[in-house]
Structures are given as C-alpha cells and as structure tokens.
Amino acid sequence: MEPWNDTRLSEFLLLGFSEEPELQPLIFGLFLSMYLITVFGNLLIILAVSSDSHLHTPMYFFLCNLSLVDICFTSTTIPKMLVNIQTQSRVITYKGCMTQIYFFLLFGVLDDFLLTVMAYDRYMAICHPLHYTVIMNPWLCGLLVLVSWITSALYSLLQSLMALQMSFCTDLEIPHFFCELKQVVQLACSEKSLNSIMVYSGVGLLGVGPLTGILYSYSKIISSIHGIPSTQGKYKAFSTCASHLSIVSLFYCTGLGVYFISAATHSSQASAVASVMYTVVTPMLNPFIYSMRNKDIKRALKRFFEMPGIRITG
C-alpha cells in the first residue's frame, strides 16, 4: 500500500465497541450517563473544597486538582464518541485525532503525577506529622502541581510531534473509541519502531516509575500505622489513605493492563474495553469514593447547599 502524506490524509475511522445498530442507543445512553456523572460529581468536589476554608489544606488542594483533571481527561474522548454515535459517523479528522492524542496524554499523565503527589502528601502527614505543615506549605504544593503540568505538557508534546512524522496507508480504521496513540502507531506504514519504543518507554517511565514511588510511600505509611498504639488511631490514619488507594489501584491496574496485557494478547477489543476502566470509570468513581468515605467533604457540600440563595425549600 502506498503511504499517504499529511497533505492527502484527512481522516481516520473510529470503530468503537460494536457495529450493531441496535446497540448504539444503549452505548450512547450508558456513556452519556457516565460522562454527566463524572462532570457533575467532580464539579461538586471542586465546589466543596473551594467554598469551605476548612478544606484549604494540601490534601484537598491536590484532590481539587485531580477532580479538574478528571473532568478534562474524560472530556477529551467521550463527547466525540457521543457525537459520532448520534450522527451515525465514525469519522475523526487527522487534525482532530492528533489533537485528541495530545490532550489525552496530557491529562492522563497529569492524573498519574497527581496520584503520586497525593501519596507523597499522605506519607508526610502520617510518617512526619510534626514537620507536615512546614514542609507541605502552599509554595511547595503549588510547585508540585506546576511541575506536574509542565512535565505532562512536554511529554505529550513530544509524543504528538513524533506521531505527526508518521505516514499512513489507506487502512485508517482505529479499533477503538478514541485516537489512542498505540493504535495509531500500529496503523503507520512508515518506520514505526522508534515510535513504539517511545510509547512503551513512556509508559514504563511515567507509569511504573510513579507507581513505584506510590508503593514505597504506602509501605512506609503502613509501617507507621502499625506502630500506632491505639486501634482508633490506626483506623483514623488508614481511613485518610483508603480512598486514594482505591483510585490508585483501579487507575494503574487497568491503565498498565491496556499497554502490556493487550500487547501479549493482541486483542484490540479487549484493549478498548479495558481503556474504559481508566478513562471513564475511574474519573466517575473518584467523587463517590472520596465523598462517601470523607466526612469533611460531606459537611462542606451540606454547608454549600444550605448557603443563602442556594437553599432549596419544599
């Protein structure tokens, strides 16, 4: 097949989950519901943290940033998929695909870094409580978030620029519901070994690296909790970490599984289904996990909705 250069290539086809027409309304309704829950749920966390001065602490500052990134992360892929289902079209333009790759990587890596920063915050709070307020000052918290943004932006820019150098053939069908970089690289007709190396190296460095840091932090946290004499103290210390551990487990298990397990099975359909877990389900569950297990968030939301002008009376 003759490679197409960038001036002739105009669009890709996103195959999604199923070609069956009768399943499209079900898929549309399911993903629209999950998207709306994700947006409104994470917006509630942002409003709760912003409106309550008692929550202006490092832990909730990072949680607020995570909720914002989760909204952006999901908005990178789901709206386009919903539009395609509604219009009965599978088309995404070449420029739209490259743009989607950039922002998907940006917010995905940001999620990764913020989860790591939150683990470090819990490590400092539990293992070094006397120095916590001094070390985790507003300047350091802002710096950690800023470095996360800059690193994520540079990484996604590098991967996107490398994707722009690839040439594609007439087979432009992506067996996914969004322009996932690994799937796009596989479609290239030009030499793609360097791109593949970059994809898996990036996953290794930005996936396994932060995960190692998280696991190390929690090994120290568990050791410190074990040394707390009272059962109530142990429970209180662990309860502040349980929500974060739940999100980390779901995000990393499914995210890393997409790249490594699917590479072994060569199943594009399995990869697409697994991607739903960390691109849609994890951001959707984030507000539920943090709000249901967190009394401070519940109180802040209650105060917010009881504010003058917002109170709803029967």
TrEMBL record:
<feature type="transmembrane region" description="Helical">
    <location>
        <begin position="132"/>
        <end position="158"/>
    </location>
</feature>
<feature type="domain" description="G-protein coupled receptors family 1 profile">
    <location>
        <begin position="41"/>
        <end position="290"/>
    </location>
</feature>
<feature type="transmembrane region" description="Helical">
    <location>
        <begin position="26"/>
        <end position="48"/>
    </location>
</feature>
<dbReference type="GO" id="GO:0016020">
    <property type="term" value="C:membrane"/>
</dbReference>
<feature type="transmembrane region" description="Helical">
    <location>
        <begin position="273"/>
        <end position="292"/>
    </location>
</feature>
<dbReference type="GO" id="GO:0004984">
    <property type="term" value="F:olfactory receptor activity"/>
</dbReference>
<dbReference type="InterPro" id="IPR000276">
    <property type="entry name" value="GPCR_Rhodpsn"/>
</dbReference>
<feature type="transmembrane region" description="Helical">
    <location>
        <begin position="101"/>
        <end position="120"/>
    </location>
</feature>
<dbReference type="GO" id="GO:0004930">
    <property type="term" value="F:G protein-coupled receptor activity"/>
</dbReference>
<keyword id="KW-0552">Olfaction</keyword>
<dbReference type="InterPro" id="IPR000725">
    <property type="entry name" value="Olfact_rcpt"/>
</dbReference>
<protein>
    <submittedName>
        <fullName>Olfactory receptor 7A17-like</fullName>
    </submittedName>
</protein>
<keyword id="KW-0675">Receptor</keyword>
<comment type="function">
    <text>Putative odorant or sperm cell receptor.</text>
</comment>
<keyword id="KW-0812">Transmembrane</keyword>
<feature type="transmembrane region" description="Helical">
    <location>
        <begin position="60"/>
        <end position="81"/>
    </location>
</feature>
<dbReference type="Pfam" id="PF13853">
    <property type="entry name" value="7tm_4"/>
</dbReference>
<keyword id="KW-0716">Sensory transduction</keyword>
<keyword id="KW-1133">Transmembrane helix</keyword>
<feature type="transmembrane region" description="Helical">
    <location>
        <begin position="237"/>
        <end position="261"/>
    </location>
</feature>
<keyword id="KW-0297">G-protein coupled receptor</keyword>
<dbReference type="InterPro" id="IPR017452">
    <property type="entry name" value="GPCR_Rhodpsn_7TM"/>
</dbReference>
<keyword id="KW-0807">Transducer</keyword>
<keyword id="KW-0472">Membrane</keyword>
<feature type="transmembrane region" description="Helical">
    <location>
        <begin position="197"/>
        <end position="216"/>
    </location>
</feature>
